[in-house]
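Page 42, continued from yesterday. The earlier attempt failed because a stray header line got pasted into the input along with the sequence. Redoing it now with the clean sequence only.
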Amino acid sequence: MKLLPTTLELLSMPWLCGVLAAGLLVVWLQRRAYRYVLWQALGMLLLALAYALAHQAPAPWSLQVMVVWMLWGAAWALAQAMVAHYGQSVNVYVVLISAGCVLAATWMGAASALPAPIRGVAGSMAMGLVLAYALPLAWRGAVRHQLDQCLRCLYSGFTAWVLLGPLLLSPSVFTDAALVLAALCSVTMAWCAWRDGATKPRNSGYRDVVTNLLNRSGLDVVCGALPAASRITVVVLCELKGKNHPRYAMGACSALALQCFAQWLLRSVREGDFVARIGSQEFALALRDLDMAQAQALVQRIQAGLPRFASLDNCRASFGLALVHEMDSLDTALHRADVALYQSKEEAGHSEPLASVV
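This time it went through. C-alpha cells are written below.
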C-alpha cells in the first residue's frame, strides 16, 4: 500500500512537468505550424514552477500569491492550447475579467485571513473556470481521429477534476491526480501534432513563395491519389478578387491582401486540414472528417471575419464547396468545387451570398 503514494509522489514532482514541457518544445521544433504545442509547454512549465514553490516550507504570503498567479497563467496557457487546436484564439476581455477575479480573491484572502484549505479550494475553482472556457470550442469542433476524441475527453476530465477535486479529496491526492491528468493531456496533444504534421511536406518546392501555403504540387502530395482515403470529405475552392470590377471578375488584390487572406484561412481551419494557394488568386481547402453542413458553417465564419482586416477592404471572396466521394481524385473534387465557385460568382452579381455547393 505504501508503493502507490510513493509512486504518485514521484510522478507529481515538477520534473515530470519540466520534462513534458521540453518534449513539447521538441515536437514544436519538428512541427512549427502547430503553435498550440508552445502554449501547452508554457502551461506545463508554469505548473512545475508553481508546484515547486508551493512545497517550500514555510511559505510566506508573497510566495503564496506568486503561486496563485502562476496557476492562473498555467490554466490560461492550457486553455489557449485547446482553443488554438481548433483554430481559435483567447478572448482578451475574458482574460482581463479572470485576472480581475483572481486579484479580488487574493486581496480578500489577505484581508480576511482565510484558512489555507479554503484559499486552496477558491484558487482551484478559479483555475477550473478558466480551463472550462475552452470546453465549448473543444466539443463543438469536429473530431478528425481518435486522438482528437481522446484529447478532449482528457481535457474535460482534467477540468472537472480541478473544479470538483478539492471538495472531495485531500490536497495531496488531488494535486497528484491533477498533474497526472495534465501530463496525459500534454502527451496526447503532442501526439496529435506529430501525427497531423507527418503528412505535411517540408520541401520548399511544395510551398507558395508569397503566402508560404502549400502550392498545387504540395496539395497533391498531402491529399494523395484518393483524398477520401486520407479522410478528406470536403474541398473548398476560394477566389479573392478586387472590387474595382462590377462583377468582381477581373480585379486584382495586392500581395499583402493575399498574405492576410492566407493567414485568416489558416487560423480558421482546424489542425490537420490543408490550405493551399493553387492559382494567382485561388485558394483551396481540404477538410477532414467534416460533413457539408459543418463545411458551410466554416465558410460562413471565414466570410464573417473578412471585414476585420483593413487590407481586404477592396477585395471580395467567393467560395465553392464540393463533397469528396470515395473514388474521387483531387482533380475531380476540385472541378466540382470550381463549378460551385462559378455559380457563387454569378450569384454575386445579384447580391446573393458568395458561396455555392455542388
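Notes: The chain is about 60% helix and 10% strand.
Reminder to self: strip header lines before submitting.
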